[in-house]
Specification:
5 strands, five-stranded parallel beta sheet, 10 helices, alpha/beta, Rossmann fold
């Protein structure tokens, strides 16, 4: 009888362990928090004259989800915005909880002839703010067209590499790579990407974004 009691006690203990281990798997696992990305920029980010589903934030989110990333990409682009406008609204439009920010500003500074020193100062302050939030940053660069003059182009085109190095941001040298000056990828104004152009932008920047997401995980 003693032997039977011992066997029953051992079986009971084993059952308790099994129930603890296998009956509540959800309690044993902590669900990973979705990654929050903010696309902060101007009309190139906002998707000028495009449906929201065709704009850069939506297409980037779709591409990342296809690759298995649990992400939300918030659109914080305003058409016509300059680096000065971005600085004025960054605290309001970029949540402190953002894991990654894609910073895309400067094109309108070029069009308005804003001195490169002013653009650099504004972007520097924006990056300071994002760093204080603890957000990782991909800095999307711009390139001044030849018509702006050699002196302006030399001053402007070096801004982004310098700021990325200073703030430890990841540089994507030219947001419009493969799209600028190509009619098949732009609207009739020759400036703003069409839906195919947005897809080309996403294709280009995607390896940089996924590398940052992998580093964050």
């Amino acid at each position: 009888m003693f032997q039977n009691k011992a066997i029953r006690a051992a079986l009971g203990a084993a059952s308790l362990v099994a129930a603890t281990t296998f009956d509540h798997p959800a309690e044993a696992k902590t669900k990973a928090k979705p990654i929050s990305i903010v696309a902060f920029g101007d009309s190139l980010t906002a998707g000028y004259r495009l449906d929201r589903s065709e704009a850069f934030p939506a297409r980037l989110q779709q591409a990342l989800k296809k690759r298995g990333y649990d992400v939300t990409v918030l659109s914080a682009g305003i058409s016509g915005d300059t680096s000065d406008g971005g600085l004025a609204r960054v605290a309001r439009d970029v949540p402190k909880s953002a894991d990654l920010v894609i910073l895309e500003l400067g094109a309108n500074d070029i069009l308005r002839g804003v001195p490169p020193t002013v653009t650099e100062r504004n972007l520097d302050a924006i990056l300071d703010r994002l760093k204080s939030n603890g957000s990782d940053v991909v800095l999307a660069g711009m390139i001044a067209p030849p018509g702006m003059g050699n002196a302006f182009s030399r001053s402007f085109n070096t801004i982004f590499e310098r700021l990325a190095a200073k703030h430890g941001a990841t540089l994507y040298p030219f947001f419009l790579k493969g799209v600028a000056m190509r009619s098949g990828y732009n609207l009739g104004d020759g400036i703003h990407p069409n839906a195919a152009g947005v897809d080309r932008i996403v294709e280009g920047i995607l390896p940089v974004v996924t590398a940052r997401l992998d580093a964050l995980s």
